[in-house]
Amino acid sequence: MSEVTTPTARIAVIGTGAIGTAVARRLLEEGHAPTVWNRTRDRTAGLAAAGARPAGSVREAVSSSSLILVTLTDYAAVRECLTLPDMDLSGRTVVGLYTGTPAEARSIASRVTASGGRYLDAGVQTSPDMIGTDTATILYSGSREAFEEHRSLLGLLSRPRFVGEAPEAAALWDLALFGIWYDAHLGLLRALDTVRAAGIDVDDFADTAGTQIGHVIAGVPGTVAEMKEGSYPPGPADLTEHLTVVRHLIDLRKGHSLGDGGLPDVAARIEALIAEGRGGEGLTATVGPAGRASDAPIRVAPRAARRDGET
Ligand SMILES: NC(=O)c1ccc[n+]([C@@H]2O[C@H](COP(=O)([O-])OP(=O)(O)OC[C@H]3O[C@@H](n4cnc5c(N)ncnc54)[C@H](OP(=O)(O)O)[C@@H]3O)[C@@H](O)[C@H]2O)c1
């Protein structure tokens, strides 16, 4: 993160919300003078006072820059800003720092490349206050050439990690990682709510809850090894025993404000495996083997509907 970068790189930050402001401030700290544009103009005032160059329009920001960091709310906003008529992106790299779906990342990548630019999609696995620190991670995918060219500059924002040349790879990683967080955190909330409803002191429960989450963390390497090897030893419990617990949990969670967490689907999957005579295997059998990365194309769900003007 302390790599030397050239302060003469021409950078634009499109969107100066929480992430965009943190990104622009970090660039200013390192001696860059980014061009900044925001829909609500006065949100660039603080950055301008610190040395950034406010642009009057997206087009002006884009035309003054070779590296364009787009930090907007969502894909719809990115699409609106980057698909102005005759927007020339030739020789420019666009980096999309927003949370979106793999299909959206693919769509914006094809728009950028059709306009002559290179595209990097970015999964922001950090909060604005962590931008520029060693614990921040931002995942990138798309043009490897663009990533390598701008690696040291992107390294000012976070540990940059390139996760593949498919433009949608970073969005896929980003959402999958968010999914881990939601599943674990919502699991914690369901458990706290359940014990509280039974009159149990949540403080008493908290330490043990933390230990339980720790078991999931400790199990990551073994689970990945099982997927890679395609062998599913039962570990502390086999599928038949898991099914009993899962059914108890479905019962316990009936009427719960956060629902049952999809456990009926899990039970159905385990029942199917038991019916195949695989009740003695472990839980990893429910998802099956991992293909080798080089063989496995990234699968993106087809779009439900095509909106006017979308490609
Ligand atoms: N904040 C986080 O902790 C965090 C963490 C990881 C990922 N992310 C992702 O990073 C992205 C940016 O998040 P943020 O926290 O910076 O959001 P934010 O503070 O709400 O800022 C959103 C930005 O998008 C602009 N915008 C929204 N709609 C627009 C439109 N139609 N046309 C032009 N500009 C538009 C806003 O402009 P105005 O000022 O005019 O409204 C503002 O600059 C999001 O996709 C978010 O999910 C955020």
Automatic annotation (TrEMBL):
One Pfam family matching this protein: NAD_binding_2
Keyword Transport applies: no
Family: Belongs to the HIBADH-related family.
Domain NADPH-dependent reductive aminase-like C-terminal: 168-287
Keyword field contains Lyase: no
SUPFAM superfamilies: NAD(P)-binding Rossmann-fold domains
InterPro entries the record matches: 6PGD_dom2 (IPR013328), 6PGDH_NADP-bd (IPR006115), HIBADH-related (IPR015815), HIBADH-related_NP60_sf (IPR051265), NAD(P)-bd_dom_sf (IPR036291), RedAm-like_C (IPR048666)
Domain 6-phosphogluconate dehydrogenase NADP-binding: start-end pairs: 10-158
UniProt keyword list: Oxidoreductase
Protein name (database record): 6-phosphogluconate dehydrogenase
